[in-house]
Amino acid sequence: MKRKPFLAGNWKMNLERKSALDLARALRDAVGNSSERDVAVFPPFVYLDEVVRALAGTSIKVGAQNLCDEKNGAFTGEISAEMLVDVGATTVLVGHSERRHLYGESDELCNRKLQRALAAGLNVILCVGEKLDERDAGRTEHVIGRQTTLGLKGVSAEQMSKLTIAYEPVWAIGTGRNATAEQAGSAHTYLRGVLAGLYDERVAQALRIQYGGSVKPDNIATLMAAPDVDGALVGGAALKAESFLGIVRFK
Ligand code: PEP
Ligand 1: which residue has its CA nearest to atom 7? Predict the structure, then answer.
């Protein structure tokens, strides 16, 4: 099955107002309304509103990097799903490895966040990925299978149309050491099998699985040629228009 490529840029805690808007405008001018590929950016919370406005009228989607698992109330420092919708975000990352490993987010917390996002009408990119010691111990499939199964607990087959999975091996994120096409393809094919088991073949085939981890303009085409790789979640190379566009326009 042919799935539309989905290229997403996670700006993490980088850029300030001017460089964030300059980047958004450069992407707007280059991508415009093109619909061949899905493109999304994930700015820091405080720039969401302005980036949404800068990209209005284009096909580029704007998402948040995180959200709170609670609806509203006394949760100092947190941002709710409804607030994201209110400023025009249409999607959100859940379970990015930096949230899981630097901030101790469990599979259960990721599932609550994911449920909260879906209830507010957001699309979700659920990130999964093994650490180096887990890969070395031959536990990659066990780890990403568990993160996917627990992350999607209670999500219906209908709601799966709002989901994307990002396979991001932790050892490849920000290290300059990307997974090989073979490693990525094998993890993605495994994940599609997990999804077919949790739902059915139709849901599994329709869902897009992005690869993330040191994606650059010079390795995107090779990674995209791997089986079951439907797009990329990009960190470092998404911070400059030239490199992100080099990824978006892969041949
Ligand atoms: C990421 O932040 O999800 C990521 C994959 O980062 P990088 O592309 O820098 O490895």
Answer: 235
